[in-house]
Design brief:
Strand order of the largest sheet: 12-11-8-9-10-13
Shape: elongated
Structural class: alpha/beta
Radius of gyration: 27 Å
Helix content: 25-40%
Order of helices and strands: EHHEEEEHEHEHHHHHHEEEHEHEHEHEEH
């Protein structure tokens, strides 16, 4: 049996050991060891192992059970499938609640199972239909066979207690078996779409700020604008890796896009994340004026957390609009909230994820700097005491 880690493997073995000890028939047949269970009559061995590629090679299982498939990596699944299949009727059984992202092994297997065209692949899915209320107990039974069986071993009062304390997307995922990509999302579902105003075109020479979030090599690079008055966010440029490991950011194209933006609009400021682009930032400062080009380190939580909160509040309150660009929406949707003592930050759903968030990061910076310049343009009033 494959568990998520060594600790979970030990817990699994401890439960199995306890079940055997409570059953006289099983206790008579099975020999219990510290790290495994053995049945002499059939020369069978139950061995829990952690989900680590190195621990999975070299086995010859008749039955391989993979628990919590949603956290299994590609390397682990490759090791699992290479270990299975050495016997004529070997079987691999994977069990899990849905993942929070489609970028995982489990989702590819779910899609394969839903297609229903592989006779060697059995797929069973339990999930409440979308749209059912979270307090609908019939939905609970659809998603949890342990509630609907003759001898239920899941308590409804326990589910009700969890429902009252979990965020709704998380409850849908963990208790109702739904694929909810927003379970850890930074913005509530639908609020970004509600702020879209694709009909608004930023006219030439309008006062704006630009925000730049660049990649040093093969990731994604974004340039976002924001109007100073009546803030409106719009994509100026996006350079994204199409999946080629040899791809590099076309720095010449990025430089040209920055130059065109300064020519077209009245750019109060270009705020740049400096990592990997210091030489270009120095060049932009010389070309457009040092007072108009600012280094803005997005890794600085003391600066980034308040800026992140500013965009969150503006979107939630509907005080900012955006151009409705579909890539913009995707980058926003990919953001998950990372809790820190200084406030929420945005991050990818996991380290190395192909789900990009660079346009979202640039938007956070752009709105923050636009707010600063909007404050500078407010006329100052002085009262003289005569």
């Amino acid at each position: 049996m494959v568990a998520s880690d060594q600790r979970q493997a030990n817990i699994t073995l401890r439960y199995a050991r306890r079940m055997i000890e409570l059953n006289p028939v099983l206790a008579e047949r099975c020999h219990i060891f510290a790290d495994r269970l053995y049945v002499p009559e059939t020369d069978s061995l139950l061995l829990p192992v952690p989900a680590e590629p190195g621990a999975l090679h070299g086995h010859d299982p008749a039955l391989l059970v993979v628990d919590e498939l949603h956290v299994v990596t590609e390397d682990v699944w490759t090791a699992v499938t290479s270990a299975a299949g050495k016997r004529p009727e070997s079987l691999t059984l994977a069990i899990s609640t849905p993942a929070t992202s489609p970028d995982c092994v489990m989702w590819s297997l779910v899609e394969h199972g839903r297609a229903g065209d592989d006779p060697a692949f059995y797929f069973e899915e339990y999930g409440a239909p979308e749209g059912w209320a979270t307090d609908d107990r019939d939905a609970w039974k659809v998603a949890n066979p342990a509630l609907a069986c003759v001898d239920p071993f899941l308590a409804e009062d326990g589910i009700e207690a969890v429902r009252r304390t979990l965020r709704e997307p998380v409850f849908w995922q963990l208790r109702l078996g739904q694929w909810v990509t927003g379970a850890g999302a930074w913005l509530p579902w639908g609020v970004w779409a509600d702020c879209a105003d694709p009909s608004r075109v930023v006219p030439d020479q309008e006062r704006i700020v630009l925000a730049f979030d660049g990649s040093a090599s093969g990731d994604s690079t974004a340039l976002v604008g924001c109007t100073v008055e009546n803030p409106h966010l719009f994509v100026v440029g996006l350079w994204e890796n199409p999946g080629d490991p040899r791809w590099r950011v076309p720095r010449g194209e990025v430089d040209h896009a920055v130059a065109l933006a300064f020519d077209r609009w009245d750019v109060a400021e270009l705020a740049c994340d400096p990592w990997g682009w210091l030489s270009e930032i120095e060049q932009w400062a010389r070309r457009h004026g040092e007072s108009r080009v600012l280094e803005w380190n997005t890794a600085n939580a003391q600066r980034m957390a308040p800026a992140t909160d500013r965009l969150y509040q503006a979107v939630a309150a509907g005080t900012v609009t955006h151009d409705g660009d579909h890539q913009f929406a995707a980058h926003i949707a990919h953001c998950v909230a990372k809790r820190t003592p200084l406030g929420d930050l945005v991050s990818k759903d996991k380290r190395g994820s192909p789900r990009k968030i660079d346009l979202a990061v640039a938007a956070i910076v752009a709105l923050d700097r636009a707010a600063y310049w909007a404050e500078q343009s407010v006329p100052q009033m002085f009262v003289f005491d005569m």
